[in-house]
Amino acid sequence: MKAEIITIGDELLNGQVVDSNSAWIAQHLGLLHIPVVHIASISDKNHAIKNALRQAEERADVIIMTGGLGPTRDDVTKATVADYFGTTLIRNEAVLAHVEAIFRRRGRKSMPAMNIGQADVLANAAVLFNDVGTAPGMAIERNGKYFVFLPGVPFEMKFLMENRVLPMLRNTYKSEVFVYNTYLLTVGIGESHLAEQIADIEDALPPFITLAYLPRIGMVRLRFTSEGRDMEALASITNSFKEQVAERLIDHVVSVDNRSFEEVLVQTFTDSGITLSTAESCTGGSISAQITAVPGASQMFQGAAVVYSNQAKMDVLGVLPDTLTQYGAVSESTVKEMAEGARRVFGTDYAIATSGIAGPGGGTETKPVGTVCIAVSGKSETRTQTFHFKNDRAINIERTVIAGLTMLWNLLK
């Protein structure tokens, strides 16, 4: 059983919109042990859609296409697909009533005429009702191949996948070959150095296990993938190799599952009954945003102070004027007082503080753009460190966030 994902939209090709749908769909198909063999992003043109379907039909058993189901003129997927399958579009009264009901729930007295066309579906397709949007999905089977057509809006696509498509695939397709994935997340070690550290373990992997390095700023996630007919045996053998790697990299391992760094931190704080606050200057609230994006963060996160100016650092956090005068806002002395001030103001067990020059302006000869000072403070210790990042503003901020969280993790240990 193999799958292909096709995303439609000129906005994907010109870089205006990032294709997040494919990654999400592929991850969830993987949970059903259905490997994705090809992903394509194509234009809103009839010939592009037909060519993509023709090629996908040759190499995959499940073809999932997103986009082009809306009511506007550039949404041509339905008409093109009907032509491809040699069928017609018919007006589905149940879908029409469903779309009208959605407009009423939104407080609209009438539905725009163009939305009536969203009730037109393939004559021989199963309709996938969309409870969170006006574009229904469709599913059709031909020659043992299963085609699914979904709206391109991410939250609508996810609803239909979770509530319509994945349950059907789970019940219908039973694969004889299983795919097992397991993960390990590391921080504070680069990809090449990490690979050197575990080279002998990687060399010993059997042919049915592959190891993928998935780096991002400040961290590397390792994915172990194995294929075979006995899921329990796959899991046992694969996990034994992962445990060897985890033991080798014990100083850098954050998670042995697929959780994010922030999720691990939130869970660790919550389980330990300890609390966190942040005092942010150059990161402008990015650290607190990352933490509070995790469900359940309210159990451990107490508050954040975004203190850009020197006056705010003094007024809100109690940073001493002499410290700012003698060392400057971007200094380990200042972030130390910021972190300790945040713990005091918010009454937390731990705090992170950042101050730096993210760029592109503001740098000096002694403190060039990318100079960042970070402090993490606990009840018994405050640690500080200066970093010299040399990237653009957005990446400097992202590096600062990850560096701060890594320092916090090391302090917790």
UniProtKB/TrEMBL annotation:
SUPFAM superfamilies per the UniProt record, alphabetical: CinA-like (SSF142433), Molybdenum cofactor biosynthesis proteins (SSF53218)
SMART domains listed in its UniProt record: MoCF_biosynth
Transmembrane regions listed in the UniProt entry: none
Domain MoaB/Mog: 4-171
Cited NCBIfam families: cinA_nterm, molyb_syn, PncC_domain, PRK00549.1
Family indicated by similarity: Belongs to the CinA family.
Protein name: CinA-like protein
Organism: Sphingobacterium gobiense
